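Dear support,

I submitted the protein below through the web form. The confirmation email said the job was done, but the results page showed an empty box. After a refresh the structure appeared. I'm attaching both so you can tell me whether what I see now is the final result or a partial one.
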Amino acid sequence: MTKKARFINKLTCFSLNEKKNLIDFFTANPVYESRIDWNNKNLKQDDFELVFTMSKMSVKNRKDTIKMFKDFNCKIIAHTKEFVIAVPVEWDCAIFMNSFSCGGEGAKWCIGSRHTDSHWNDNIKDGSVFYFVYFFDRHPVFGKKLMIKIDNKGGGSFYTQKDRRHDFDLLANYLRDRISTAGVAVKKKALKVW
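What the results page shows now:
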């Protein structure tokens, strides 16, 4: 039993069935654990409502993914049953990709900071191109969503939701394989960097 499950079992305002449902939810959706103040020993149903709402948004977004990205001026370059790859066209689009509204999980990429557009502007002026990958189901290595950066010299790296930088080769091989086997039409210019 996880620490969170033991904590949930100690909450007195929930029935046994409600506790089981909470444990099942966080076991299936561990990404939402960080949205709860586990130091509060008097958690109530209302404290969990935001998390449940986020989870429902994620399911809703999956059903209407193409519309979701088009509404925020994202250029979709690939769409398979496993993921969507989109290019943020403007800073507002990058902010959306960082947000919980995009897939029910947030990210910390500097280009999508709500506080300043300087990271976005500096990277775009330098000729960098960004590709956003949204996985319908959490990928065991890459997570739910990530950002790929291709610099003006053709070098690439990708960033997890926590803005941790990783070498591009592993991801490039995965995406190239998935796109080619899915028979997805992708703009040739975009595939050159992969």
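Response: this is the final, complete result; the empty box was a page-load delay. The longest strand covers residues 129-139.
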